[in-house]
Design a protein that fits this description.
Structural class: mainly alpha
CATH architecture of one domain: Up-down Bundle
Strand content: under 5%
Length: 195
């Protein structure tokens, strides 16, 4: 009778463990980490392209030194931040990383806008190639961020849903931060167009 009771308890424990969501949490956590790696990879690609773009622009727009300096400084700030998976568990570090990437995007946009004032620069094959690569990288960043957002959504649903939320709490898993729009309130209002 004692052996039967022990066997029955073992079966109940195994069935309970199978439905606890631990394996699902592990799978979702790995998806988030992989998606984050893709985001970081695309940001690194952009950061690697920027010095080449700045050097090409320097030759044509030497008196635009302030913009070139700001792009270089923003790139330095963005690449100096640790972007490994530990950022995913630290909301403040995640926010700093996101702010640095937003600043880099803004300064890069200003640099590309300046190029519009230099017809010879716009005609330069190196500039056109670099601009196309950066535009392609920006698209890759958007796709990688979307995949990350979806992976975080699935993970957060898993760690917040019953009964897997009990397992998540037991093993210390908590919801992960997601990308946010910095100027969300401004985007809520329709743009004003005047002719």
């Amino acid at each position: 009778m004692k052996k039967l009771l022990v066997a029955l308890m073992a079966c109940v424990t195994l069935l309970g463990a199978a439905g606890c969501g631990y394996n699902t949490i592990q799978q979702e956590d790995e998806r988030v980490t992989a998606a984050w790696s893709d985001v970081v990879n695309q940001y690194k690609r952009r950061a690697d392209l920027i010095p080449n773009l700045v050097n090409v622009v320097k030759g044509y727009a030497s008196h635009e030194a302030e913009v070139l300096t700001k792009v270089t400084e923003a790139r330095t700030r963005a690449t100096s931040l640790t972007a490994n998976a530990s950022v995913l568990t630290n909301e403040e570090a995640f926010k700093r990383f996101q702010e640095a990437q937003t600043a880099l995007s803004g300064s890069l946009s200003r640099l590309l806008a300046i190029a519009e004032n230099y017809p010879q620069l716009k005609a330069d094959a190196n500039f056109r190639d670099l601009q196309a690569q950066i535009e392609g990288t920006e698209n890759r960043i958007a796709v990688a961020r979307t995949r990350y957002i979806e992976a975080v959504r699935a993970y957060n649903i898993t760690v917040r849903s019953f009964p897997s939320n009990l397992t998540a709490k037991l093993f210390g898993y908590s919801p992960k931060p997601n990308f946010t729009v910095e100027n969300e309130k401004e985007l809520a209002e329709p743009p004003k167009v005047s002719f």
